[in-house]
């Protein structure tokens, strides 16, 4: 009886891609990463560690592998924890979506993902009071006639004002930065932030993009705090699990239970 070997799937590349023998992925010790050819494509796979968990070391190993490989040639990244029952399942899933994967690899060639988050500057209350007549009047009323209700109204007005200023500044930044990117997508809302956006940036423009973010952040430091992360694997610009063309085997590569 043949035992099927489960595979951890990191991403998809062109079949002519070469990997150094030392390429390692998740696990402790780190599993050796290899190519599983499927026509014009190949899946980046390794054996599944027996104790696979969403530990920081494995999350970082997964991301660092994809970032390093993506700097050399396009990679379609899988989210952390994608596991297939065996090589046949991987081959069927990759083959079923081959046209989509090939098109995405062309889009991502010599490009990287940069993520930008924007949040209000909580220390900028003085600037808000100076610039916002409505908040200034509330603050003056509270000073003259202190009350619990007045403090509550003032606190709400300050929070709303800081968020509004940050949103306006983030929208300005977005309009400037899209000129340096090929694509931009808004990510899910993140508590405390007014913007979460990912940019598909040509690698040749990545330093220019970073410099533009830093310049804008300095010029608008009383309105918005910007946090730039990247280069990253291009997660935001490839079809996510379940978005590829459906097939009988489209669920063969799926997230494993990696709690804890």
**Total domain count:** 2
Number of strands: 10
Helix proportion? 25-40%
Biggest sheet layout: 6 strands, antiparallel
Determine and state the CATH class of the largest domain: Alpha Beta
Q: Tally the helices.
A: 7
CATH architecture of the largest domain: 2-Layer Sandwich
Please mark out the parts with pLDDT under 50 across 5 or more consecutive residues, or reply none.
241-251, 256-260
Beta-strand content bin:
15-25%
Structure description:
The structure is a single chain. Strands 1, 2, 3, 4, 5 and 10 form a six-stranded antiparallel β-sheet that branches. The chain has a four-stranded antiparallel β-sheet with strand order 7-8-6-9. The chain is elongated and about 75 Å long. It folds into two domains: 7-97 and 239-255, no CATH class; 112-236, Alpha-Beta Plaits (2-Layer Sandwich), CATH 3.30.70. It has helices spanning 56-70, 87-96, 98-108, 125-131, 133-144, 148-177, 206-219; strands at residues 7-14, 34-38, 41-47, 76-77, 82-84, 111-120, 183-186, 195-202, 224-232, 253-255. By secondary structure, it is α+β, with helices and mostly antiparallel strands.
In short:
The protein is an alpha+beta fold and 260 residues long. It has helices at 56-70, 87-96, 98-108, 125-131, 133-144, 148-177, 206-219, and strands at residues 7-14, 34-38, 41-47, 76-77, 82-84, 111-120, 183-186, 195-202, 224-232, 253-255.
Annotate the secondary structure layout.
Elements: E1 7-14, E2 34-38, E3 41-47, H1 56-70, E4 76-77, E5 82-84, H2 87-96, H3 98-108, E6 111-120, H4 125-131, H5 133-144, H6 148-177, E7 183-186, E8 195-202, H7 206-219, E9 224-232, E10 253-255
Antiparallel strand pairs: 1-3, 1-4, 1-5, 2-3, 5-10, 6-8, 6-9, 7-8
